[in-house]
Amino acid sequence: MVRLLGSRWLRLWALVGVLAVALVLAVWAGAIRLPPGQVLDALLGRPVPKLVTTILWDIRLPRVVLAAQVGACLSAAGAAFQGLLRNPMAEPYLLGVSGGASVGGALALTLGLRWEFIGLDGAPLASFVGALAAVTLVYTLAHGSSRRLSTGALLLAGVAVGTFCTALIGFMQVRVPEKLLQAMVNLLSGSVATATWPQIASATPYMVVGLVILLAFGRDLDLILLGEEAAEQLGVPMEATKRWIWVGASLATAATVSVAGLIPFVGLIVPHIVRLVVGPGHRFLLPASAVGGAAFLLLADTLGRTLWAPQEIRVGVITGLAGAPFFLWLLRQNLVRGE
């Protein structure tokens, strides 16, 4: 009980409260605003107009659930990458992980791969292979022969790999049938507008596994902040830990890309803001980033579909507009410190 009243726990629960408000707002707001009483009746299974039922269960709720899942995964992956690399600029989009995942998903579409893996949809797994290959390539290029992983080298390698992945998808768009062209476009411009329950069901197992892996390494990430040698002396098996965090973050990112496309900067913005709320300890930072990321993307998507309703702005555009200035400010801060 005492721990529940600790300041970090209170702040974490406050973030949960923000997420609850974002969920309610996202369900209510839109081109058609649903009366709160009818929404509650529909959720409780009471009779409501068919239009309300259709909008709520077939359109609004799948979109809200997917946005929350995508935001949670991207934010937690960003926090994990920043801790593992001890680099505040690390995040799935800038590291090229999202780009690699999009190539994997595009290949699955282009080649017509419709297969299952242990009873699960294999499309997110194809994105995972692409994401893991991309992050491995970026890390190898940025690390080189130096023992110190600089911010500049990491960003250059990530941007180069991400740009190459985008070009590959552009090339593949020429070869895909017209019926798949929109799906390819969606991979490059993130959106949750076409969310469906089958989509959510296909990606959720991969998202959950990725998040569980990351949450399991909160203590190790705290020790890694002291330096790799110090962490090893304190009992952290560095190579195994690195591999598991690569896998967890890449799997969470790949699952989001497979259903929502490229959504930039969520993994950069949210962990930095949440770190100010709960502190740098990853045992709090990782779950808080997941909660904060879910709330952030819900609010971004709600803004995108209400600002000029009935026209919509893709959520990837909203996060890009918010994230680019934040990225430039953070980059300047790092350059001033000489990192």
Sum up the structure in keywords.
disordered N terminus, single chain, two-stranded antiparallel sheet, 2 strands, mainly alpha, 339 residues
What can you see in these coordinates?
This protein has helices at about 5-30, 35-45, 50-85, 95-110, 125-145, 150-175, 180-190, 195-215, 220-225, 230-235, 240-260, 265-280, 280-305, 315-335; strands at about 115, 120. With about 350 residues, it is mainly alpha-helical. The longest helix has about 35 residues, at about 50-85. The termini are far apart.
How is the topology of this model organized?
Blueprint (H helix, E strand, L loop, with lengths): L6 H22 L7 H8 L6 H36 L11 H14 L5 E2 L2 E2 L1 H21 L7 H23 L4 H11 L8 H20 L1 H7 L3 H6 L4 H23 L5 H13 L3 H25 L8 H22 L3
Antiparallel strand pairs: 1-2
Short recap of the structure:
This protein has 14 helices and two strands. Helices cover 74% and strands 1% of the residues.
Q: Average pLDDT, to the nearest integer?
A: 87
User: Structural class, please?
Assistant: mainly alpha
H and E string: HHHHEEHHHHHHHHHH
Number of helices: 14
Task: Name the shape in a single word.
Answer: globular
Query: How much helical structure, as a percent, in the residues?
Result: over 70%
Distance separating the two termini: 42 Å
The amount of beta strand, in percent, is under 5%
The overall strand count is: 2
Reported for the largest beta sheet, the result is: 2 strands, antiparallel
- Show unreliable segments: 1-5
Strand order of the largest sheet: 1-2
What is the radius of gyration computed over CA atoms, rounded to a whole number of angstroms?
Answer: 20 Å
